[in-house]
Write a structure and sequence with these properties.
The protein is an all-alpha fold. Helix content is about 75%, strand content about 0%.
Length: about 290
């Protein structure tokens, strides 16, 4: 099994790079003199953390049996997945420590919060995903923690604008996490994974999804009106027809995991468009 197969190039791996790049874009909009060394070190650190998350998810899910209830022929997950995940986190910590020495203690704080989310998302003893907090942890990690951490390593401060932007990014990922769990409803329930979808049920989870997506666009519009966000970011509104189609498909196919993938894939594209629209708007701002 090669490295690409190992981490399976999942969307959540790629998506984790987007809030880091978003924070860098907002910092660039504030001061057009980025420190390239800090950019690449931060990028490498985030990538290592995301690889560790994927490895831990594979390892602990296989250990609990959640991925094998309805798919008995899946290959066994070797024990070195866990060791490689620890190594990736260790390397990320070294990078975080260096950036802390260069920029200040908040980097260490963001790194520690990221560790709590990365390891304990499915790892014992906390296991956020099994206690109904996994989606919130994803929203925080892919929103405020990454965006503000990325912004800080460039400007050595935390401002309201990147915080506001990070809420949009985090809420969008929260919605995607909810949607991504619906096809796994029964197997998650059987292994005791009491995430929000299991606790609420599929239909109420879809209602929560609707509210979350409405919140994303309400914040986007508010940000543009209050001039917190450059007006060009409103281009993300072109995704509204896709969202409506995705929700309609989700409601229709919530008991058909294969057909449900259309809804997930559509919201993946929507999330990418929203984050890229925000980032590009700041890169082009004066």
């Amino acid at each position: 099994m090669n490295l690409i197969e190992l981490i399976r190039y999942r969307f959540f791996l790629f998506a984790g790079l987007l809030p880091f790049l978003l924070g860098q874009a907002v910092a660039f909009g504030a001061r057009r003199k980025p420190n390239q060394l800090r950019f690449w070190l931060g990028f490498a650190g985030i990538f290592l953390v995301l690889v560790a998350v994927e490895l831990f998810n594979e390892y602990f899910d296989a250990k609990e049996g959640g991925d094998r209830i309805f798919s008995q022929n899946q290959p066994e997950i070797p024990g070195w997945f866990f060791k490689l995940g620890i190594l990736a986190l260790g390397l990320a910590f070294i990078i975080g420590l260096y950036l802390t020495l260069q920029t200040g203690w908040p980097v260490l704080l963001f790194s520690f919060l990221g560790f709590l989310g990365a390891y304990f998302y499915v790892g014992p003893p906390i296991r956020w995903a099994y206690r109904g907090f996994g989606e919130i942890v994803i929203g925080l990690c892919y929103g405020p923690f990454m965006v503000l951490g990325s912004y800080y390593i460039q400007l050595q401060r935390v401002d309201f604008v990147p915080f506001f932007i990070s809420i949009i990014s985090g809420l969008s990922m929260f919605c995607l996490a909810i949607l991504n769990e619906i096809p796994d409803y029964y197997q998650d329930m059987l292994v005791g994974k009491r995430n929000l979808v299991v606790k609420l049920g599929k239909q109420r989870a879809i209602l929560l999804l609707k509210l979350g997506l409405a919140g994303v666009f309400a914040l986007l519009a508010l940000g543009v009106v209050l001039k917190i966000i450059p007006a060009t970011a409103i281009v993300a509104i072109v995704t509204l027809p896709w969202i409506l189609k995705s929700i309609k498909s989700a409601e229709k196919n919530c008991d058909n995991p294969k057909a449900f993938l259309f809804a997930i894939n559509t919201i993946v594209v929507v999330h990418i468009v929203i984050v890229l629209s925000l980032g590009i708007s700041f890169l082009g701002s004066k």
